[in-house]
Amino acid sequence: MASLMFTDCSSSISSRLIHVNARSSGAILFRQHVGQLRLRSTASPRGCSLSIRCSSSATSVDGKAVAKTIRDEITIDVTRMKESIGVVPGLAVILVGDRKDSATYVRNKKKACESVGIKSIEVRLAEDCSEEQVLKSISCFNDDPSVHGILVQLPLPSHMDEQNILNAVSIEKDVDGFHPLNIGRLAMRGREPLFVPCTPKGCIELLHRYKVEIKGKRAVVIGRSNIVGMPAALLLQNPEEITREADIIIAAVGQPNMVRGSWIKPGAVIIDVGINPVDDPNAPRGYRLVGDVCYEEACQVASAITPVPGGVGPMTIAMLLSNTLISAKRIHNFE
Ligand SMILES: NC(=O)C1=CN([C@@H]2O[C@H](COP(=O)(O)OP(=O)(O)OC[C@H]3O[C@@H](n4cnc5c(N)ncnc54)[C@H](OP(=O)(O)O)[C@@H]3O)[C@@H](O)[C@H]2O)C=CC1
Ligand SMILES: Nc1nc(=O)c2c([nH]1)NC[C@@H]1CN(c3ccc(C(=O)N[C@@H](CCC(=O)O)C(=O)O)cc3)C=[N+]21
C-alpha cells in the first residue's frame, strides 16, 4: 500500500489550485453553518488536546476526540429510536475486490457501527465480478426496509463504471452523498441534498465544533475530486499565493506534505484531509500516514490544524454514522 514518497517536507510540488468562490459547493456547505459560528480561532471544545507532536502555538484539532463525542450523541439517539419505535438503523457496505486499505476502512466502519448500535451488513464481491452483480446487491439493499444507508466502497475495480454504480443507489439511502442528484442539489442554491458527503461534512463539523467562524472568511480547497473537492471550483494557477491569502485551508490533494509552512497565513485554520502512506521501516506496518500539509512547519504558523492520523479520518466515519441515523429517522418519520 505504501508508495515511495518524501517523508519530510523538503520536496515541493508545482501545482494547481482550486479556489472556493461564492458559488462553489464548499461555500454552500459553509452556508449551512453560517450564523452558528463565533469568531474565536483559539477556542477549542471540551476534551480537545494539544498535540505533543507539535511544540508551537497552533491548536491541534482532535478529530478523534470530536468523533467520539459525536458517536456518543448518536448512541443516545439510536437507543431512543429503538426504544420508542423499535427501529434499529442499518448500514449496508459493499466491498468489491481485496484492496487492503479498502478492507481496513470497511472494518473500521463496521466497528464504528457496532459501537453506536447501528446494524451493519457487509457484502464482499470478488475483484473480477461483473458490474451486474454489484448492481444486484445495490438493488436488494434499495428494497430492504432494514437498510437505511448503502455505501459502495471506492475505488471500484477499473472494469466497472463507477458513475453507473453510484447512480443505482437510492438517493434516500445514499449516506455517502455521492449520487449525482445529491451532489447536484449540494451544488445548487436553494436545494438541499438528502445527504452531505461524509468527509467534507466532517471538515465543516470540526470547524463548527472548534468555533471557527466561516462567514466573511477566505477559504481555499486544494483538490477537486467528486468526493472531497468542489464541482464548481475554479482551476487556478498559483496555489502558494492564493493559499497564503486564506484564513481557512482544506487540503485534499493526496500529495504528502505538499502545503508548506511558507504557504500559510499566520493564524490560518487548516483542515488536512490527505491520507498518504509513506515508507517508514521503523513503523510497525512498514509505513506511516502523513497528510497533504507539512504538519511540523504548519503548526508554527497556523492557529489550528488537524493532524493525520487523528483529524478528519475519524470524523468521516462519525459522519457516516450520523447520515445513517438521519436516514433511518427520515424513513421512519422519527424526530
Ligand atoms: N481523511 C478522510 O476521511 C479521507 C481522506 N482522503 C484522502 O484525501 C486525499 C484526496 O482524496 P480524493 O479527493 O479521493 O483524491 P483524488 O485523487 O480523487 O483527487 C485529488 C485531487 O487533487 C488534485 N491534485 C492532485 N495533485 C495536485 C497538485 N499537485 N496540485 C493541485 N491539485 C492536485 C487532483 O486534480 P485533478 O482533478 O486535476 O486530477 C484531484 O482533483 C487522499 O490523500 C485521500 O487518501 C479521501 C477521502 C476521505
Ligand atoms: N464509498 C466510500 N466512502 C468513503 O468515505 C471512502 C471511500 N469510499 N473510499 C476511501 C476513502 C477514504 N476514507 C477514509 C475514512 C476514514 C479514515 C480514517 O479513519 N483514518 C484514520 C487512520 C487510519 C489508519 O491508521 O489506517 C485517521 O485519519 O486517524 C481514512 C480514510 C473514506 N473513504
From TrEMBL:
Pathway the protein contributes to: One-carbon metabolism; tetrahydrofolate interconversion
Tetrahydrofolate dehydrogenase/cyclohydrolase catalytic domain mapped to chain residues: 61-176
InterPro entries: Aminoacid_DH-like_N_sf (IPR046346), NAD(P)-bd_dom_sf (IPR036291), THF_DH/CycHdrlase (IPR000672), THF_DH/CycHdrlase_cat_dom (IPR020630), THF_DH/CycHdrlase_CS (IPR020867), THF_DH/CycHdrlase_NAD-bd_dom (IPR020631)
Reaction catalysis annotation: (6R)-5,10-methenyltetrahydrofolate + H2O = (6R)-10-formyltetrahydrofolate + H(+); (6R)-5,10-methylene-5,6,7,8-tetrahydrofolate + NADP(+) = (6R)-5,10-methenyltetrahydrofolate + NADPH
Keyword Cell membrane: no
CDD domains per UniProt: NAD_bind_m-THF_DH_Cyclohyd
Top-rank lineage group of the source organism: Eukaryota
Domain Tetrahydrofolate dehydrogenase/cyclohydrolase NAD(P)-binding positions: 197-330
Record keyword Oxidoreductase present: yes
Keywords: Hydrolase, Multifunctional enzyme, NADP, One-carbon metabolism, Oxidoreductase, Photorespiration
GO annotation, cellular component aspect: cytoplasm
GO biological process: one-carbon metabolic process; photorespiration
A Gene Ontology molecular function term of the record: methylenetetrahydrofolate dehydrogenase (NADP+) activity
Pfam family, one: THF_DHG_CYH
Entry similarity comment: Belongs to the tetrahydrofolate dehydrogenase/cyclohydrolase family.
SUBUNIT field: Homodimer.
Function according to Swiss-Prot or TrEMBL: Catalyzes the oxidation of 5,10-methylenetetrahydrofolate to 5,10-methenyltetrahydrofolate and then the hydrolysis of 5,10-methenyltetrahydrofolate to 10-formyltetrahydrofolate.
UniProt name for this protein: Methenyltetrahydrofolate cyclohydrolase
Source species of the chain: Eruca vesicaria subsp. sativa
